[in-house]
Amino acid sequence: MLEIDDLHKRYGDIVALDGCSFAVTPGRMLGFLGKNGAGKTTTMRAVFGLLTPDRGEVRWDGHVVTDADRVRFGYMPEERGLYPKMKIAEQLTYFGRIHGMAKDAARAAAERWLTDLDLGDRLEDPLEDLSQGNQQRVQLAAALIHDPDVLVLDEPFNGLDPIGAGTMARVLRDRAAAGTAVVFSSHQLDVVEDLCEDVAIIDRGRIVRTGEVESLKSASSYRIVELDLTDAQAAVLGDLDGVLETRYEAGRHVLRVKRDIDIRRLLATVDSAEGVEHFVFTTPSLTDLFKEAVA
């Protein structure tokens, strides 16, 4: 298990981390969420020893993480850390050697990962000849080259088209299924909700919510209702008992209601001769929980 325990970091008057704590379990994916400047990248850099926290520890398998442990970690920074003029397979082989792989094994792994990421025909191309999305795939391959025990990715889905995002998601699922502890930050909360079993939300350097995604959603004090209604039906929404908020979104009326609302009574109140063509009653989305946590 990768444990982030009570990390503190200041830069003069700026508090970057203020007691940040959470854990990433092998075989599971954790989404690390927060607004810009909340402390996500600072935390990730602390995991890899790229900065020293003022207080707190990063632990792996029960002990303070060492340089030897970090050789078994994979990191994908938000800023590209590759060489633009160097051939793709050549530099991936180089990164594999840094992680202790023999040259032939590193080259074979480079070819395997690039093929898996649909770049098998670009092995001898310089990085700068690739599109932004394909460069992102190479950056992922660099993090994966040595089959790490821990995979830490900072905004890995940035700049990817839907096909690239699907490829990235597939690879991350496969790595988690193989037992890797995977943590990634993202502002695309729908992607996090789809991929991750666990989540940690950071705000101003402190974790404000953490746990299993489905458990957090189920424990919420409210539920979401979606309805297709006529104007006449919608006119009574705001006066219904248990309705906390109403909004019109993507052609439908969306209600935030108390979790114990009598949903049959609500439907009976808005129903009419026209009927209700669309109805959804569900837990809040991860986006809803995030907005509530960092408000």
Question: What does the model show?
Answer:
The protein has 295 residues and is an alpha/beta fold. It folds into two domains: 2-217, Rossmann fold (3-Layer(aba) Sandwich), CATH 3.40.50; 220-294, Alpha-Beta Plaits. Helix content is 34%, strand content 29%. The strands form three sheets. A six-stranded mixed β-sheet has the order 6-7-8-3-9-10, with helices on both faces. The chain has a four-stranded antiparallel β-sheet with strand order 2-1-4-5. It has a four-stranded antiparallel β-sheet with strand order 12-13-11-14, with no helix packed on it. α3 crosses α4 (103-116). The two termini are 30 Å apart. The model has no long low-confidence stretch (mean pLDDT 91).
Walk me through the topology.
Blueprint: E1 2-11, E2 14-24, E3 29-33, H1 40-47, E4 55-60, E5 63-64, H2 67-70, E6 73-76, H3 88-98, H4 103-116, H5 132-144, E7 150-154, H6 162-177, E8 181-185, H7 189-195, E9 198-203, E10 206-212, H8 213-219, E11 222-227, H9 231-234, E12 243-249, E13 252-258, H10 263-270, E14 279-282, H11 286-294
Parallel strand pairs: 3-8, 3-9, 6-7, 7-8
Antiparallel strand pairs: 1-2, 1-4, 4-5, 9-10, 11-13, 11-14, 12-13
Please give a quick description of this structure.
The chain is an alpha/beta fold and 295 residues long. The chain is 34% helix and 29% strand. It has two domains: 2-217, Rossmann fold (3-Layer(aba) Sandwich), CATH 3.40.50; 220-294, Alpha-Beta Plaits (2-Layer Sandwich), CATH 3.30.70.
